[in-house]
Amino acid sequence: MQRMVAQATTMRWGRFQVRPKGEHMAFYELTPAYGRDYKNKAEVTAAFNAGKDFEGDYQLGFGLVNKEQLPAGSTVMLRYKRNTMVTSVKV
Asked: Among 85, 82, 89, 33, which residue's Cα sits nearest to residue 57?
């Protein structure tokens, strides 16, 4: 049996890094709400940062969310250009 070794904010269990409870990385995929569409990465990023609503993925219950409702430190994949392109944004 391998032993756990504490390291700053993460712990090591064998070859895996384990984060303490309550501290996690989350990834969400969002699509523009209300039939909106954006032509490029700059437009969709600006709308997200401005607090516009986006439709969440299964982790968010497919509900409407904006930047303020997402946990800090999570990464968001934003769809644009008729949902064919994706860009990532750190919250």
From this structure: 33
Taking residue 19's Cβ as centre, other Cβ atoms within 10 Å add up to: 11
DSSP 33: S
CA atoms of 91 and 76, how far apart (whole Å): 7
For residue 7, the one-letter residue type is Q
Give the DSSP letter string of 38-61: -SSHHHHHHHHHTT--EE--GGGT
56 burial level (CB within 10 Å; 0-12, 13-18, 19+)? buried
Beta bridge partner(s), residue 16 = 13
Q: What pLDDT sits at residue 6? A: 45
Q: What is the DSSP string of 11-31?
A: EEETTEEEPPTT----EEEEE
Ramachandran angles phi, psi of 3, nearest 5°: -100, 155
pTM of the model: 0.72
